[in-house]
Every structure is written in structure tokens, then in C-alpha cells.
Input
Amino acid sequence: MQKRNYIDIFDFERLRNITDALYVDKTKYIYDIVGNKAPGFFFFLSRPRRFGKSLFCSTLEYLFAGRIDLFEGLYIAEKTDYSFEKYPVLHFDFSKINLDSFDSFYSSFKKQIAAQAGLYDVKVQDDAPSTMLDEVISSFTQQVVIIIDEYDAPITSCLTDENARSFIGRVQMALKSFFSIIKANTGRVRFFFMTGITKYSNLSIFSQLNNLIDISFDRNFASAFGYTEAELRLYFSEYINEYLCRENREYETEEDFINAVRDNYDGYCFSTDMAQRVYNPVSVASFFLNGFEFKNYWNSTGVSSLAVEFARRNNLLSIIDSRISLNEETFTSFEISQFAKGNVLNDSQIYALLYFTGYLTIRGVNRNIYELEFPNKEVARSFSYSLVTKYCEDGFDFSSRQNGILEDASKGKTSVIISNLMRFFDAIPYDLIEGRDRSESTYNMLVHAFFIALDYDATAQDKNRLGKSDEVFFAGNHVYIFELKVDGSADDALRQIDEKEYYSKYMKKGNIIHIVGLNFISSRRQIDTHWAEKVIKEK
Output
């Protein structure tokens, strides 16, 4: 029976009790944290949404509850000496706290604490959350385990909600008091584990909780969340074989198929060890469950509107086709609550936010300088789509035009592509281009953003032996090669493609190659109505 990967179940007990449920065993990493070799007892780890943090926290909860029955056949039960000693476990999920108003936040916060107390028949007074937590911890004669999932959810929710911004300071004070109680009860805590999307800092709400061990960049835990390629091939082997048994399939060999899956959903790196890359688990599961359809599942699996909004404000269009350099200190000093102060964010801070929310990932490290870029095609498309649609506002509806333009491109209708590209430029706000250097690179980025947002298989600055073309994209057996000029000539652009043979590597049987020259008129910020095209058909 083929195992099913349930992407909407985050409770470890429920998942293990479903006969056909697929569970990727991550208990080796749990043992590394809770076992005798662990470097401490208080841990923090940040990861983007939908990378398995909640399931990991739930697994810890049942582990410390002594539920050895749920771990039969798993690494920690079969290959370690872990004793499964039972402890009281206080498990909080801050993403479930209501933020309609400060009163609703405060009430919801207290209800979570009261609910945890109720699991152990502990009665607490209806008091401040910090006082209630202290009372719960003090009621036990043995040490307790505290697990907090999505610690930063109340802060990020306040930042994206106009109403909530008015009471974000009060939210921060309540959280600060809550964490100070945990620090005060360090001796009563057997184990503490906290997750979030963004980095914590000792400078504000964690000023009291300064004994956390941050394993977010630790190479020993770089693969603890998400799927490695070895795990993909092992746990999803039945799905892979199912695809390879299809008569009408695009990829003939297993390696070609895996390469395509890797290009779309792999590539996340969370340490300086570049070899440790992982797939987004929800995107992978969605891909297999949706009949092997390469779609953008990222948009529906927890993207951060906050990150895109800040990127839009700072005109960070260059992210789309550039690798970003970021100093290590930007990561270590970053904390989400600093955004509540109303400070203007610099580009580096936004790059850090884009890393923590999963839009950028580590591609290289040189001393203390991190090189960041999109992890894969799915995220590049998602970010580009979110960014350009925000730029265009209501001037260009990508969602309604997408299928039609792709269909026309697969039929060789270059004129339709260019007319839509012209409409796109008409919809771009004046200050987006006016505030930038109106060079060829600016227009190149906008053109690339357009094609990526339309879900094209597109490449910017495509290299060959004689140079590099500005844009190449594929639609069926049609290959489009664009060269762009600013205040020049479309004919000159076309001539450059011909002279440097940018099309040579695509001269394959059955391909129809369109080489296209475009010229931008900078004074009008528009594409010249005269454009040039040459079609090459390979027989």
C-alpha cells in the first residue's frame, strides 16, 4: 500500500496512528538535542513556515510524555539508548493566539496557559500570563518541559495588521514578562525548545532569557527540517516509480525526473555546509499528491506577505536576478520586534528577513560574508509574482492573463507576448523606474520579472561561448531569445543575437527558435513599438 504524505496533520500521535501515513523519520536530530551529548537544555531554532516545525515540536511533546509506543521502528527507539522518561510537558503554539485586539490577545494568551495547566489538573488563578505560568511550573514536584512553537507569530501579526500595530508595545511587554518567568525557573525546567520564523535577540523581549542555544545555523541540524535528497528517494520511492511507469511522461529516466523536482523544490541551505540542501516538505508532498504537476505550491503554503511588502517598499527588484551579499552580523543582530519601532529598514535588514522567511537561501560563505539567492524555481516565481503584482497594483492582472499568454507563446505568437509586455510596462509606477538608474540592467530585471511571474521557464543573462543574451524562455518546443537595448535600435539588438549566435546551443531537432530585439525609450519608460524578430526552425 502506497504511503500518503499528509500535509495538514501536525500532531505526531495522530500521524503515527494512521495506517497509510508517511512519516519521514527525523528522530535522529531529536536525540541529538535531548540526548546526553546535547550541549545544553534551552534551544531555539528558526525556519520558514511549512518546514515541519510544528510536527517536530509535537514529536518532542510525545517523547517527553514517555510515549515509547509511538516511536516503535524509529531511529531514537531502535538505535539509541534514550530512556523515554516521563515529564510534564507545557506545549504552547503562539500562532493560535487571537490578535483582534489587545484584550483578545491577553485573553487568548491566558487561555493557552490555563489549557496546559488543565491537562495536569492544575488550577491556576486568572491573573497575568507570566504569573499563571509561574504558578503552573511551581505546582510540579519534578522538572517540566516547555515547548513554544512560532514564538514570533504575535509580533509578525501586529506588523501586518493596521489595528494591531497600535498595541504591539503592550504585546511585547506581556511576552517579555512571560519569558522572564521561564528564565527565573531555569532549575525547574528539564528541557526548553522554541521555534520561530525569524531570529530572536537578547536586546528586547528576550533580554531575560539569555541562556538560549541558537541552533538555526548549526550544520548538525541543517537537515532536521525539510527533506534531503536521500530521504526523497527513500520515502517517496513508490511515487517516483509510479511516475516512471506512466506511458505519457515528460522525463524518461529517474535522474531526469529527480533533476526536475530538484530544480523546482530543492535548494534550501541553512548552514555553511553547502552540501546540506533540503526540499520544502509541503511543496514536495503537494507535487506528488497532485499527479506530478509542477506548480507553484509555495504561494499556498505560508508565504510571508510581510517580507514581500518590505521588499516592495525598498524597490528591491534586483533580487530577482542577482546574488545578494550579507554580513554575518546582520543575521546575529536581527530580530523581528525591531520592525515595531517604526524605523526605516535598510536593504540588508530586508535581505535577512527574506532569508528567514524562505525567499532567499545560503549559496556560499566567504569568511563572514553570506551569499544569498533564491533556493529554486518555485520560490523565484512566487517572489517575482508577488513583487511585480504589488508594483503594478491593478494595472496588469497576471492571474487572468497567465494561461492565455503561455498558450500563445507555445504557438509562436511573439506579437501577443510583446503586446502584453508593453501593457505590463504601462502599469509600472513612475517612481519604480524613475528612482533607479535607467540603464539596460533595470529594464532587464523588469522583463525577467515579467516572464518569471507568468510562470515561464526563463533564464536571465543566458551565457554562451561568445557572450550572454538578456532573456531566454521556453514554451513547448518554442525557444524565445531576447536582446534589449535602451535608446538604441531593435534591429541592432537582433543583429547582436545573430552575430554572437546566442541561439546555437538550442539548435536541436524540433525546436523553433525566435530571436527578438527590443528597444526601450527611457524618456517615456516604454517599449518602442518597432521590434525585430527572426525565426529559426530546426528540422
